[in-house]
Amino acid sequence: MAGTLGNKNFVIFKAESIDRSYPDEESINTEPTQHIRFKDDGRKPVDPKDLHHGGLYRAVAKLFMGFEHSCEEDVEYTWGMGTGQLTASNSLETSAHCVLYTCPICQELTPAKYIKIYLGYDGMASIGDEDRPDGVEFRCADSFTVLKSHYVKMKSKQKPKLTFDVASIRVANAFIHVDPLRFEATPLSSKKEELGVVGYPGDMAYRSEPGAQMFAHFKKDQSFDLSVSKENMLTYTTSTFGGQSGSPVFRRSRPGVSIGIHQGTPDGATINHACPIAGRYGVYVRSYKSALSLATRHPLKYKQPKTLEVELVRAYSQKSSFDRIPAKPELFASEILSYIQLAMKPIEKLQEELSTCTLIGPSEIQLKDKIAGAKAYLELAKLVAQQRDFPDLVVQPEAQPGADNEESEDSKRTHDTLRVDGTSQISRPRTPTHGGFKRLPRRTKATSAKEPRPRRGSTRGSQSVRRMEYKTRKDVLQESEDEY
Ligand SMILES: [Zn+2]
Question: Which fold has domain 7-286?
């Protein structure tokens, strides 16, 4: 499959947002998975400094996946643990089996509904202010993708090829305090490599929390040969356990450069395995990322029904996230703008387009719900736009931009009273406070509404779409250009 682009080879799932708290302990799946702990288990907790901003392992993510499936009584969700490797500030890779759960009782395959992603995680007590130098950053997955053939095989209970046990995950708002890892092609063979797996093993508990801490185990003199190993996988004898699936495999000599996505032990194997990267046998992660980007980055430029649908589901699922005021008003405004753009489409047109879609994803969001979601989002966006004093973000195509000149750049507001249900009274205290939000500069707003954009492609279909691409995304795009 190597290197094939486009959605026809990939299945894309939408994920929903959820709060950053530790999942309900009862529902965490602690079934041992297929990994090996060797006699000389040398796993050691990493130096906490390596988790902090700028730390060596900052880009190794702690993951919780929430699946809307359980065959146990009174348990609605099953939560799995995993490890991810951040390879761009808004995307990461892990194992496909981390985001697709096969119930051991009924064998049903369920894609994750929620994916919680933490950088710098050091036990649940570490979750707090993300801007502190040791702060844990948290995001929810916005969407994720696996190879379609892999998914189909898992779904039909065939054995999928282990080499492609890979998933790429995207977050809507990029992580800030992190230097992403890089992938490098896995060497075809080696005799004396010092290899290490770094992740969150579920058999290690810290303050009675399983999988709370990041462990690393580097082992010398590892020899492997992709041409003869099972399914051409990268093999090693470092110990791992469930929760470490998706972990990066590092060479001691090349810190920050991953050459594998830790998988575990296929049936009967007596050695640990990782999906190799690029080259003759490996996975081209970039094609996964591209598939996700096509589906999510230019939602209004590409007007295929499926893309529109993805955007609608996103709008719908993110409604809940607005009861928290985001840290970056600029990004927030961009998002709102794009949703308004979407919601401005006549409902009949949406209906027409949506009727040709098939919904892929864990949520059973029906067509009418999606339309209701779009409508509700429009209302919400209006409310938020007013609340935030972005009058020209309000959907009034005939409104005169520039009519409102009363603001000054340094005026700040508090927004403690913002509610999303639209029922409460909007109060707009003008108290300048330290923690208040600065409005967008006037020029940016005007540009987004009507003015032609200098130096940007006027061939683009929609200026508002362009507006969505804030800096971080551009950076990410660049980062992923020369990546496997
Ligand atoms: Zn089941």
Answer: Thrombin, subunit H (2.40.10)
